[in-house]
Amino acid sequence: MTLAEYNQCVDRYSDNVYRFIVKNMRDEDDARDVVQDAFEKVWVKAAEIQFEKAKSYLFTTAYRLMLERIRKKSRHTDIDNTLRVVSGAEVKPEFDLKKVLNEALSRLPEIQRSVIMLRDYEGYSYEEIGQITGLNESQVKVYIFRARVTLKNYLVSTDLVV
């Protein structure tokens, strides 16, 4: 990939990659870091990457970096949540549709959340999602189906009715 192609890749895909990562991580600063790290890895391997495959390589790299960062953060978050519950600082928020949707997404397993975001938010095909996540097409379909069922059950539950 040439410098011009790399710059074209940044212009075309940076917003999409950022949206995908921030929706999964729910932290803008961490999402920016992941996207920047992904583009850095693409730059380092630019000579080896064909421009036609840059999008897939970029999303795959960003996805893996995101998983790595989430795993590292989860160790720290578990301790923080335990301390907050013990101290009695747990507060129930007011009803907000966006918060409810984000909460529903956060209840999904990591892989289901990722494939549903790639499919329904970013509009990728099953094949493209498979390339990004390393799953085959039938696995992607199964995870998306299960995620949608879980989301539906959560969103229509009576716990949300106030």
Named CATH architecture of the largest domain: Orthogonal Bundle
The top level CATH class name of the largest domain: Mainly Alpha
Residue stretches low in confidence (pLDDT < 50, at least 5 long) are 89-93
Q: What sort of overall outline do the alpha carbons produce when their principal axes are compared?
A: globular
Give the H and E element order: HHHHHHH
Q: How much of the residues is beta strand, in percent?
A: under 5%
Number of strands: 0
Give the number of helices. 7
Task: Give the name of the CATH superfamily of the largest domain.
Answer: RNA polymerase sigma factor, region 2, helix turn helix motif
Residue-averaged pLDDT, rounded? Answer: 82
The fold-level CATH name of the largest domain is Rna Polymerase Sigma Factor, Chain: A
Helical percentage: over 70%
Radius of gyration: 18 Å
Q: How many structural domains are formed by the residues? A: 2
Alpha-beta content class: mainly alpha
